[in-house]
Amino acid sequence: MIVCHCMNITNHQIRAAVDWMRAADPATIITPGKVYRALGKRADCGGCMPLFLDTMRSCASLKVAGATEADRSIPNLGTGKYHEGRRQSHRVSERGTAV
To answer: Do the Cβ atoms of 26 and 65 come closer than 8 Å?
Structure first.
């Protein structure tokens, strides 16, 4: 499946790059930028980034050996519960209408 249409990157290429980086250095932190560089490409419009990240997360070799879920520095990141310290209804459009 093509994940990035701008650069013609498939899910198989992303998984192969993640596996290759993990085999080369088991303690490295793998980022989308590193995957793009490993493939010899650059991010263009960024529209593929959600699918790109989901594909990366689906790789069994993405996780660093010995790291636990508690090692993350930002709690609830990616769960929709993280609002950068603001109230959940911080937008005017989410509040009740003014009378």
So the answer is: yes
pLDDT in tens, 43-71: 888 888 999 999 998 888 887 665 555 55
Residues 51/3, Cβ–Cβ less than 8 Å: yes
Question: What is the C-alpha separation between 32 and 63, in angstroms, rounded?
Answer: 14
The single-letter DSSP state of residue 2 is E
Which residue reads 């303690």 in tokens?
27
Paired with 9 in beta bridges are 4
Asked whether the whole model's pTM tops 0.90, one would answer no
The pLDDT of residue 70 is 53
Q: At 2, give phi and psi (nearest 5°).
A: -80, 125
Q: Which sequence spans correspond to the domains of the chain?
A: 2-81
- Amino acid, res. 51: L
- Compute, in degrees rounded to 10, the torsion defined by CA atoms 93, 79, 70, 61: -140
